[in-house]
Design goal:
3% strand, 11 helices, single chain, mainly alpha, 308 residues
Length: 308
């Protein structure tokens, strides 16, 4: 892939900031996001993500576009599992539905910042120490094995160590104060329960990013493609949550599918000098595994009244 011009970096950053601004303005008033609204926004985010891939194809060629789409699909699939954990957090802390979008919006901003730092660090490591790719590959294979063995385990978010740390270090109040994260009382700032939830959302996404970013480096080492595929997938996370949160119990085989994807891209990274896998083959394998896990999940959880 040719060197990415600075103008493309600036354009991608401008598009991401513009989309966040549009989303913030569109949801400036607290309200319960309906299924129809979530579906419309999900469609918009997917159109933007796939459309950007088409621009990559036009400017940098089919191989670069294939790498972008492979990274986008991996991140999008992992985002579905992320949605399940977000649902546990928001439900566990009884966050009113009209405030959930605000929490997830600022969670996504934090996620974009953290992932940018992680991607820049990973790219610098790979450029200086090529053998780091083998560490990433081994880590992904082990992650796949761990995910396959713990398919139904997400832990209790209300018992997360980060929660105890926040309560110890940050003065807080147990009462909600609208959608505010901080309130001023008696001359000092206090964190509301929404602030605690936001911290847990950020910590959760950091854990997922540690898995997903090496997986995208397995299909491309071009920082521009890693960052943009990650960013455009993460931008749709809020809408995906409101669309799928009530249906997560039906994705019973998704975790196994994600485990297989992790193991595949990890093995691909370990063998990239011995038996390189073309990006077209990688993309086909990733699509097949994810689609297969979703379809088998939906078939296995058909409601009793519709099984006949």
């Amino acid at each position: 892939m040719p060197t990415v011009p600075l103008a493309w970096w600036i354009t991608a950053a401008a598009v991401i900031v513009l989309l966040l601004a549009v989303d913030l303005v569109a949801h400036r008033r607290d309200h319960v996001v309906s299924l129809r609204e979530a579906a419309a926004w999900s469609g918009l985010w997917i159109a933007v993500g796939t459309g950007f891939g088409a621009l990559v194809w036009w400017r940098f060629g089919g191989e670069a576009a294939g790498e972008y789409y492979a990274g986008y699909l991996i991140e999008k699939a992992l985002a579905v599992d992320n949605v399940f954990v977000f649902a546990l957090i928001l439900t566990g802390f009884a966050v009113p539905r009209e405030y959930q979008h605000r929490v997830l919006f600022f969670g996504v901003i934090g996620a974009l910042v953290m992932r940018t730092v992680l991607i820049a660090s990973g790219a610098a490591l790979i450029e200086r120490f090529a053998w780091v790719l083998y560490l990433f590959g081994a880590f992904l294979v082990l992650t796949g094995v761990r995910m396959a063995r713990r398919r139904s385990s997400h832990g209790d978010p209300t018992a997360h160590p980060a929660l105890r740390l926040v309560r110890r270090l940050v003065p807080s109040t147990p009462q909600l104060h609208g959608h505010r994260f901080l309130v001023r009382r008696d001359g000092r700032w206090l964190a509301t329960p929404l602030f605690t939830v936001l911290v847990l959302v950020e910590v959760t996404d950091l854990v997922f990013a540690v898995d997903s970013i090496p997986a995208i480096f397995a299909v491309t080492t071009e920082p521009f493609l890693v960052l943009t595929s990650n960013a455009f997938a993460v931008l749709g996370l809020r809408a995906l949550y409101f669309l799928l949160a009530d249906l997560m119990h039906r994705f019973v085989h998704l975790k196994l599918g994600l485990a297989l994807v992790m193991a595949f891209v990890g093995a691909k990274m370990l063998l990239h000098h011995v038996a390189p896998v073309p990006i077209g083959v990688s993309l086909a394998v990733i699509v097949s595994i994810i689609a297969g896990s979703v379809l088998t999940s939906l078939r296995a959880t058909v409601p009793a009244g519709r099984a006949s």
